[in-house]
Amino acid sequence: MNPIAMNLLVYGPDMNDAVLSELAFIHGVGYQGVEIPVFNTELAHWSAWKKEVDRLGLQPFACAIAGPTENLISPDPAVRAAGIAYLKGAVDVAAYLGSPYLSGPFHSALGVFTGAKATQQEIDWSIAGIREVADHAASKNITLCLEYLNRFESYLVSCADELYALVEQINHPYVEIMFDTFHANIEEVSTAEAIRRIAKRTPHIQLSESTRGILGEGQVNWPSVIQAIKDVNYAGWLVVEAFSEKLPAAHIWRKMFNSERELIEKSFKMVNGKRMVNGKW
């Protein structure tokens, strides 16, 4: 059985003391790790977090998201430089926490569009920026795991094959892929086949429902996804990812579950092979 982690964006983007206090509950449910979004790159902010994950024995993972002011494919060189600086800082936080990866769609900015398909210049900017960040990550033994988003959130890469091609062009030993089932459910003909095609470059997988809610209560074909993960002999972590109205960037404006704790418990059961029957697990 693959080890299971919980992505903390379910609580929103602010990694405050209230979220920190939930780590003990997550550990008690049975999760062995947590994936922590890094928007604050001041190491002092993460001191209490490091102490708590170490105390609980949770494996920390780090993820990052670039916004309009950190866009690696911006025509403004100052914005591209700001993106590189932010990501290097996020790498430092990942190393401090003890994460082996910095994952996310930071090859470009979330929610920024030009109204046209990606140009070769934009691809080249992304490659150059990621290579510079990856050189820094290598010095910390951190692997960058790039993620593709669906067409409504990003345009540089929006499917498994496009991201695989980008990672191949980056051609850096510390750059690989993170696969997210939510985006695949929108963009792929078959999520399972997409997993099989890119498996050799995918050390990290996020499991996310079509609704961004409780795993098993949406339209993702979980039996086929889990079978593909087994077929490729994937030995990495499975990270449960879900969002709510607390994360405005996810554009979720209706309640998808009663509480974060309900989602955390039920999603853990689903990943462990339990199924809901007549409304009960």
Strand-helix topology:
Blueprint: E1 4-7, H1 17-20, H2 23-29, E2 33-37, H3 47-56, E3 59-63, H4 77-97, E4 101-104, H5 120-139, E5 143-146, H6 160-170, E6 175-180, H7 181-187, H8 191-198, E7 204-207, H9 222-231, E8 237-240, H10 260-271
Parallel strand pairs: 1-2, 1-8, 2-3, 3-4, 4-5, 5-6, 6-7, 7-8
Provide an overview of this structure.
By secondary structure, the protein is an alpha/beta fold. The chain has one domain: TIM Barrel, CATH 3.20.20.150. An eight-stranded parallel beta barrel has the order 1-2-3-4-5-6-7-8, surrounded by six helices. The radius of gyration is 18 Å and the shape is globular. The model has no long low-confidence stretch (mean pLDDT 95).
Structure, briefly:
This protein has 281 residues and is of the alpha/beta class. 39% of the residues lie in helices and 13% in strands.
The number of helices is 10
Low-confidence stretches: none
Q: So what's the CATH class? A: Alpha Beta
The best one-word shape is: globular
Helix content: 25-40%
The succession of helices and strands, N to C, reads EHHEHEHEHEHEHHEHEH
Query: How many whole angstroms does the radius of gyration measure?
Result: 18 Å
Structural class based on helices, strands and sheet pairing: alpha/beta
Query: Into how many domains do the coordinates divide?
Result: 1
Count of DSSP strands: 8
Kindly report the name of the CATH homologous superfamily. Divalent-metal-dependent TIM barrel enzymes
The oligomeric status of these chains comes to single chain
Mean pLDDT: 95
Q: Can you tell me the CATH architecture?
A: Alpha-Beta Barrel
